[in-house]
């Protein structure tokens, strides 16, 4: 068993950061700003459901949600250490940060792979 | 190689300047760094928002429409605009950092950083266009 | 036309004060003077008690690193005209214990440097009869910039992680470890990796990037560390997925 999970967490951080950098801007622009403000018309519920039901889309959405969650968890953990100098609370920080990412991943798996 | 016992010399008169918890406000490069790192929050927010949207989709048409309506509220629009700016800042800083971390060599010569950054932007625009096309066909 | 400029120098005399205090000196303003020349003027003409380190006065020895207006700088390479109208704040290098005035103790760094084994490690030396180890220009190109380090420690003064985590091995030491890892003649990469993948090693770095910004010799320690993280993480992944393949 490797002595530390840091390299794995760094890989997740890097992959998540790349996914977030390349894909989040357009998704955010469309779903978070353009559609709510009426610049773009939202497709019908059925067509979204059909698109989302496709196995490739489900896998894509799973990656889109989970990798950036781990990226954010890892980065925020170190921001707390450096920014607020609370490294002594490391057990609490690690639990909250990666715990949130893990819960999000499990929820994503449940909805995308179980229910859709 | 075994490490021999290493005693730290006792020098009580050496002055050790304390590092304030506000160290990152003392110089602009440090502040820029912390702002860059804080983009983890908007990124995490959008990931969770997407998760929430998937959940609404799965729960049925009524739930999905409720979700869409909620996103139209001024509070969410404001929050989304601010977080979108954060996500953009993440993307820009990420593209400019990647050539430092990943050195690409062709025929033994290192590709210039500017070229890698350019490739990142091309990939970003290309992928965004593909996603918009897929979305439009839905 | 200005003919003098003020230097505000952080003095620290442990025998009579508990904290550094600033003392101002007015020095002649000369277009071609570096801050080091101004400091030497102070010591020679104004106040012989001022203590500071310097040697080559041309940016190759790494002795004269100090904080100038809050920025880690080689005082022999920073010229008075850039700092008009003054006053110029000169302090001892940050994040190091101050012994006296502008002199800091760097024993901590010397111990960290030794830890990374900054020398060519060979499993077996070639016998002399077989001649030299040959290296192509492309192979040299891979690590040459990392070999330019003069141990001036400006990168340590710029790195916030060094300020927050004194055990962090630090930019210059890791860059020098990479200089040897990437040298085609070296066979010690595995040995250095096991030292640098620990708690005080490369994983403490959060890629602030200031070390590369302040480096006067273009060593790019930030780049060295990020590339090392990729190497280290890939190596870890291989050891987990293919345990029989690694040593």
Features:
heterotrimer; B: 138 residues; mainly alpha; 5 helices; C: 247 residues; five-stranded mixed sheet; two-stranded antiparallel ribbon; 7 strands; elongated
Based on secondary structure, the structural category of chain B is mainly alpha
Annotation, overall tally of beta strands of chain B: 2
Order of strands, widest sheet of chain B: 1-2
Question: Helix content range of the residues of chain C, please?
Answer: 25-40%
Give the largest interface: A-B, 56 and 51 residues
The secondary-structure element order of chain C is EEHEEEEEHHHHHHHH
Structural class of chain C: alpha+beta
Helical stretch tally of chain B: 5
Q: What is the rounded distance between the termini of chain C?
A: 69 Å
Radius of gyration of chain C: 21 Å
Number of helical elements of chain C: 9
Task: Please state the average pLDDT score of chain B.
Answer: 89
Low-pLDDT residue spans of chain C:
none
Shape of chain B: extended
Order of helices and strands of chain B: HHHHEEH
Basic shape of chain C? elongated
Oligomer: heterotrimer
Uncertain spans of chain B:
none
- State the strand order across the main sheet of chain C: 2-1-5-3-4
DSSP strand count of chain C: 7
What this model shows, in words?
The complex is a heterotrimer of chains A (116), B (138) and C (247). By secondary structure, chain A is mostly helical. In chain A, 37% of the residues are buried. The model of chain A has no long low-confidence stretch (mean pLDDT 90). Chain B has 138 residues and is mostly helical. In chain B, 69% of the residues lie in helices and 3% in strands. Chain B has a two-stranded antiparallel sheet with strand order 1-2. In chain B, helix 2 packs antiparallel against helix 3. The longest helix of chain B is centred in the middle third of the chain and has 28 residues. By secondary structure, chain C is α+β, with helices and mostly antiparallel strands. In chain C, strand 6 and strand 7 form a beta hairpin. Helix content of chain C is 34%, strand content 13%. Chain C starts with a strand and ends in a 6-residue tail after the last helix. In chain C, helix 6 packs across helix 9. Chains in contact: A-B, A-C, B-C. Chains A and B meet through helix 1, helix 2, helix 3 and helix 4 of A and helix 1, helix 2, helix 3, helix 4 and helix 5 of B.
């Amino acid at each position: 068993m490797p002595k530390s999970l840091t390299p794995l967490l760094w890989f997740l951080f890097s992959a998540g950061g790349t996914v977030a950098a390349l894909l989040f801007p357009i998704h955010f622009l469309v779903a978070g700003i353009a559609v709510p403000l009426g610049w773009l018309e939202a497709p019908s519920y059925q067509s979204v459901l059909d698109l989302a039901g496709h196995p490739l889309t489900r896998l894509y959405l799973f990656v889109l949600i989970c990798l950036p969650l781990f990226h954010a968890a890892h980065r925020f953990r170190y921001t707390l250490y450096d920014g607020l100098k609370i490294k002594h609370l490391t057990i609490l920080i690690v639990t909250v940060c990666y715990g949130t990412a893990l819960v999000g991943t499990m929820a994503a798996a449940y909805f995308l792979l179980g229910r859709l | 190689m075994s490490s021999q016992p290493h005693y730290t010399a006792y020098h009580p008169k050496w002055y050790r300047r304390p590092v304030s918890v506000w160290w990152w406000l003392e110089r602009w490069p440090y502040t820029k760094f912390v702002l860059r790192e804080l983009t983890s929050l908007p990124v995490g927010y959008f990931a969770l928002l997407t998760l929430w949207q998937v959940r609404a989709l799965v729960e049925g048409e009524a739930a999905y429409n409720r979700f869409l309506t909620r996103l139209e509220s001024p509070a969410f629009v404001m929050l989304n605009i601010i977080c979108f700016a954060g996500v953009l800042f993440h993307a820009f800083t990420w593209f400019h950092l990647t050539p430092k971390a990943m050195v690409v060599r062709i025929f033994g010569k290192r590709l210039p950083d500017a070229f890698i950054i350019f490739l990142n932007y091309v990939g970003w625009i290309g992928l965004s266009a593909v996603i918009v096309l897929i979305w439009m066909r839905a | 036309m200005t003919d003098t400029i003020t230097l505000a120098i952080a003095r620290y005399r442990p025998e009579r004060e508990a904290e550094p205090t600033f003392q101002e000196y007015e020095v002649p303003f000369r277009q071609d003077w570096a801050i080091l020349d101004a400091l030497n003027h102070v010591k020679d003409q104004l106040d012989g008690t001022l203590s500071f380190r310097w040697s080559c006065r041309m940016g190759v020895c790494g002795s004269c690193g100090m904080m100038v207006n809050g920025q880690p700088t080689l005082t022999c390479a920073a010229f008075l005209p850039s700092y008009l109208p003054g006053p110029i704040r000169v302090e001892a290098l940050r994040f190091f214990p101050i012994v006296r005035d502008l002199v800091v103790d760097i024993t901590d760094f010397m111990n960290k440097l030794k830890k990374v084994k900054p020398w060519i490690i060979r499993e077996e030396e070639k016998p002399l009869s077989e001649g030299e180890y040959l290296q192509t220009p492309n192979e040299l190109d891979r690590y040459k910039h990392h070999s330019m380090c003069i141990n001036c420690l400006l990168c340590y003064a710029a790195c916030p992680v060094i300020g927050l985590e004194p055990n962090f091995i630090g930019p210059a030491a890791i860059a020098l470890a990479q200089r040897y890892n990437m040298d085609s003649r070296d066979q010690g990469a595995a040995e250095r990796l096991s030292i640098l993948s620990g708690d005080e090693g490369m994983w403490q770095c959060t890629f602030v990037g200031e070390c590369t910004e302040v480096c006067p010799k273009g060593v790019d320690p930030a780049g060295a560390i990020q590339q090392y993280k990729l190497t280290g993480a890939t190596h870890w992944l291989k050891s987990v997925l293919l345990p029989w393949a690694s040593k």
